[in-house]
Amino acid sequence: SATTLDFGGFSFLTGIPWLAAQRRDGPGGYAFTISGANLSGATIAGVEATFDLDQAIADPIRLAPNEPFEQHYLFAVGDSDAHSAVRWIAARDDALPVDYRAATEPTAIRVVEADGGAPVSDVVVDLELWFDERWQVLDRMRPDANGYLPADQLDMINQSGDRRLVAWSDGRGRSAPTLWSDGAPSTVTVPTAGALTVRINDEQGQPMPARLQLWQNDERVRQVFLTGEQTIAVAPGTYELHINHGFEYSITSATVTIPSGGTTRFETTLKHLVDTLGWMSIDTHVHSSPSPDSKVLVDERIRNAAAVGLEVPVATDHEAIVGLWQGIVKTGLYEWVTTITGEEVTASLPEHLTMFPAIPDGTLRGGIVKWYRKGLPELWDAIHERSNGGVAMLNHPKQIYRLLEWDRVAGQPAIADYSVLQLTDSQTPWSWDFEGVELMNGYGTIFRQSGDHPSIGHFDNWMSFHNHGHRIVGGGASDAHGTNDLGEPRSYFRSPTDKPAELSVDDAVAAYKSGQVLVSGGAFIRVVGVNGQSIELGDLVEDRDGVIDLKLDISAIPEIDVSHVRIYANCDEVRLFETTATDATIKFSGTVTVPVSNDGTVRDAHIVVAAFGRKPMPRGFFDYDPAAVPRAITNPFYVDTDGNGTFDPPGGKECSYTTD
Question: Taking Cα atoms as reference points, which of 413, 448, 424, 423 lies closest to residue 657?
């Protein structure tokens, strides 16, 4: 019988009879099991893993060389729902543990509408079991045209606990639970459906993609990625409606009421407010269905990107070089989205790495980089060979900083025993032969916090790279596996075109290699010039007196506040000032005087600009701690104070700065 087992810090649900799923948007389902196995499930490193617990813990398979072993895997596809696939597995004597069976008598369960009792077929019905102190889905079905569920319901023997039926759909919401006894006729009553027709226009009156969210009682109850005028099923009721197209366009908020049995129409226009001319938005860490830990289909990912205003999602699936081009072809969203194909090289040790670009080679996984028992030098070499000299990035680096005991002053790992990384004495754990690091992976704090491990601090460690003369670009990426967080945060890179369909991958690679990248959590910073001369991020400028006049333009939509700006020289905070128009689009446009050191010493410096807010993000976007996470942060430009035509790094040091 099913039970839970706590082992090694993980909680395993054991005795699972099968795994099953069904399409949300149409007929079809599948089921899977292993014959004779004690299936168990747990979430491990973010992946929902299922395995035979007996083999893993109690009775592992021990085979001599060349000794055969046979294991039966059963996979069934159904034509209607998950149940239509499960019933095939349940009919096999060798498929299930002894405490599962198909119901012996047909059961009459019908779904009807609350108003008038008409039969309902456009819902999903879950058969739930009260187990392990919560309701868990035992079976999932769709009614037929007359509202009846399949007669051969499945149930569990030797399991105590109540059972109930819950019907749900986007257009009807969730029904009140109906308690059910095995074999007893039952009726499930659902609300009458409603609908919402939405059209989002650009400033020329043409339909455009956008993200729609519906909220009730301070909870988001629905999110849809619109690509034109669409009618969507929505349960009757009153909602807060929020529409956006990412960080650059105006947002719309309103209250809408969906009538029972009727349709509400809503139309709005979104205006392009934030000037990002010459820059293109990119998310260098995006997963879709080729990754085992993502359920987002490729075409859904492209609609997702178009809706949130992300121009370049980089496909970085785990050990899969597949890409998203098929999704662009299928959706036709060339005007809004392009893509770059890459890979997340999922080296458990030392760390996950991003590679782009990469062209699939026609093999099953596309020609992945094999990482087992390789240190970073070997991995960087393999990545650059596979990407033809492309971009290699260090992902979510908190783990590797701790494992290597990163020493910011020395600018190198302090670890003495490489064996913990499964490396030999002849292998080294570190190499500077990479282009970028994820300064922001999601919206976790990038600054040192009280009580942190001495090697933790994304901003400080990134700055230590530059303090030692290594021009490693800092990037922002979502690490999106679902659809909620794509492009939050994102990066912008310098581009000769603002049209996604015209982007050259070489231009994106060149921008990353030259440091012409900024990270955005909602705002955009344009470094316009120094001492009256225009510059780009990554440039070297000469200034002999140790004080520069820095011209900046900082913008965000009015609802995203940008209240103050910090400027760092060699990772020390050297200037803090308030913006002039927190609630306008242009938060600051002007020139500020910036010393190149915090102690009056004239020395070469790398300069970073970061913008911060104090208010929550507007509804429709991810919220985060604005004191610990900047609204936007640039990569450095460099100041040559001795006129020798180069940047002389200051060497190892700890950073000095404030946070709100």
Answer: 448
Residue 39: its pLDDT value, please? 82
Per-residue burial over 3-38, b = 16 or more CB atoms within 10 Å of its CB, e = otherwise: eeeeeeeeebbbbbbbbbebeeeeebbbbbbbeebb
The tokens describing 169, both together, are 């759909």
Tokens representing 523 are: 């705002």
Tell me the H-state helices in 178-245: none
CA pair distance 473, 476, nearest whole angstrom? 10
Provide, for the chain, the percentages of residues in helix, strand and coil under a 3-state DSSP scheme, each rounded to the nearest 5.
Answer: 10, 40, 50
Name the one residue in this structure whose structure tokens are 């020609």.
367
Q: Rounded to the nearest 5°, which phi and psi values hold at 66?
A: 70, 10
Structure tokens at 247: 């960080």
Cα separation, 609 vs 629, whole angstroms:
13
Amino acid of residue 428: T
Q: Which CATH number fits domain 524-643: 2.40.440.10, 2.60.40.2550, 3.40.140.10, 3.40.50.720?
A: 2.60.40.2550
Considering the domain 3-190, what is its CATH architecture?
Sandwich (2.60)
Q: Could you say which of 1.10.150, 3.30.420, 3.40.1350, 2.60.40 is the CATH number of the domain covering 199-269? A: 2.60.40
> What is the pTM for the complete model shown?
0.91
Query: How many other C-beta atoms lie within 10 A of the C-beta of residue 51?
Result: 17
Beta bridge partners of 637: 607
Query: d(Cα 251, Cα 242) in Å, to the nearest integer?
Result: 7
Q: Please check whether residue 97 is in contact with residue 17, taking contact to mean a CB–CB distance below 8 angstroms.
A: yes
What is the model's pLDDT at position 3?
66
| Each residue's pLDDT tens digit, 284-302 | 999 999 998 898 999 999 9
The DSSP secondary-structure symbol of 267 reads E
Cβ neighbours of residue 506 under 8 Å, at least 6 residues apart?
none
- 619, 601 Cβ separation under 8 angstroms: no
Cβ proximity of 339 and 303 under 8 Å = no
Cβ pair 154, 77 in contact under 8 A: no
Q: How far apart are the first and last CA of the chain?
A: 54
- How would you write 129-159 as a 3-class SS string? EEECCEEEEEEEECCCCCCECCCCCEEECCC
Regions of the chain short of the pLDDT cut 70: 1-5, 7-10, 43-47, 58, 93-107, 152-161, 182-183
Residues 6+ apart with CB under 8 A from 43: 10, 49
How far apart, in Å, are the Cα atoms of 224 and each of 237, 367, 621? 17, 34, 14
Decide if 541 contacts 569 (C-beta within 8 A): no
Sign of the Cα pseudo-torsion (517, 521, 524, 529, in order):
negative
pLDDT tens-digit map of 435-483? 999 999 999 999 998 888 889 999 999 999 999 999 999 999 999 999 9
Cα–Cα distance measured from residue 387 to residue 359, given in angstroms and rounded to the nearest whole number: 8
Outline where DSSP puts E strands in 366-472: 391-394, 406-407, 412-413, 436-441
In total, the chain counts a number of residues equal to 660
Q: Are 85 and 154 in contact (CB under 8 A)?
A: no
* Domain limits, the chain: 3-190, 199-269, 524-643
d(CA 356, CA 360): 12
> How many CB atoms are closer than 10 A to CB 552?
22
Pairing of strands 436-441, 473-477: parallel
Place of tokens 């458990």: 348
Give the Cα separation of 70 and 63 in Å (integer). 11
Question: Which residue, 434, 482, 69, 550, is CA-closest to 304?
Answer: 482
